[in-house]
Specification:
Elements: E1 3-6, E2 10-12, E3 20-21, E4 25-26, E5 35-36, E6 39-41, E7 49-56, E8 67-75, E9 81-93, E10 104-105, E11 109-113, E12 121-127, E13 139-147, E14 158-166
Length: 167
């Protein structure tokens, strides 16, 4: 049975050196619901920048299926371009020191934007089976998203939303 998405209950963008904020994008379509929120990454990212996300996971029991970190991103990129990030994921029980939890890095994710579709929303799910091995119900899930300059070619703002799903 599918479960989610669950969105972060807490976040910290102060470690991103001013490269990530909360400036919405105005989509290319221009209808009455044209703005896209999320975590706004500056155009032409100049330094690796990390945001921290914390999720309350299900308390009674774990959902059946495979856990995934889902991202959705929009950019008004007018040329074919690339964004890259690495997610690191861990967990801790309530009462434990969350900042002491081991974070397991996933493989680097590459997102390709097309010049022909500015304003398009791209989405994918990253498998968390290994990163959450040993996870139990009522744990907090800690995620660090490191946006990486190496190979980053997007010259316009990108706006990101992250959530957890099971299916």
């Amino acid at each position: 049975m599918a479960y989610g998405p669950i969105y972060p209950f807490d976040d910290y963008i102060g470690g991103a050196g001013g490269n990530v904020g909360s400036l919405p994008l105005l989509g290319a379509g221009g209808n009455a619901a044209a703005h896209w929120g999320g975590y706004a990454v500056v155009p032409s990212l100049g330094a690796d920048s990390t945001i921290e996300l914390r999720f309350n996971a299900p308390t009674a029991s774990l959902p059946s299926g495979t856990p995934y970190l889902r991202y959705k991103v929009m950019s008004l990129a007018s040329s074919t371009s690339v964004a890259k990030f690495t997610a690191s994921v861990g967990f801790a029980a309530y009462g434990a020191v969350l900042s002491g939890a081991t974070l397991n890095a996933l493989s680097q994710t590459t997102v390709n934007f097309s010049a022909s579709t500015p304003g398009e929303i791209l989405s994918a799910d990253l498998n968390l089976t290994t990163a959450l091995s040993g996870y139990a119900a009522d744990n907090l899930i800690d995620v660090a998203i490191k946006f990486q300059t190496s190979g980053w070619t997007v010259a316009s703002q990108t706006n990101w939303i992250f959530g957890l799903v099971w299916y």
